[in-house]
Amino acid sequence: MEAIQGIVPFILIFGIMYFLLIRPQQKKVKEHQEMVAALRRGDQVVTQGGVIGKVSKVKDDNEVEVEIAAGVSVRVVRSTITQVVNKTEPAK
Predict the structure, then answer these.
(1) Do the Cβ atoms of 26 and 40 come closer than 8 Å?
(2) Which terminus of the chain faces fewer neighbouring Cβ atoms within 10 Å, N or C?
(3) What is the pLDDT of residue 68?
C-alpha cells in the first residue's frame, strides 16, 4: 500500500507534464510540418533568421527558392520557414 502511495505522485506529475508540455509541442510540430508541406510559389514567408521573402520556386522536398529582393533569390531549407505571411490563391 505504501509503495502505491509513493508511485502515485510520480504518475500525476508525468500526466500533468504530458498535457501541459509534451502534447502541445507535438501539436505545434505537426502544424508546422503541414504549413511547410503546403508551401507553393507566390507565398510570402518569414525564415528563422527573420528574412521576409516570396517563394519563387519549390525545388524539392527539402528546399525552396525565396526571392528576398528584386532579382535576388536564396535557397532555403523548408524547415527553417517559420511563418507564411500571405498565402496565394490556388490556380483554377
Answers:
(1) no
(2) C
(3) 95
| DSSP secondary structure of 54-87 | EEEEE-SSSEEEEEEETTEEEEEEGGGEEEEEEP
Range of the domain at 11: 1-86
* Overall average pLDDT of the 51-71 stretch: 92
The verdict on residue 70 lying in a domain is yes
| Cβ 73 vs Cβ 56: under 8 Å | yes
Distance CA 82, CA 35 (A): 9
pLDDT at 29: 94
Mean pLDDT of 57-75: 92
Of 71, 68, 72, 29, whose CA–CA distance to 46 is shortest? 68
Q: How many residues does the chain have?
A: 92
| Domain assignment present for 92 | no
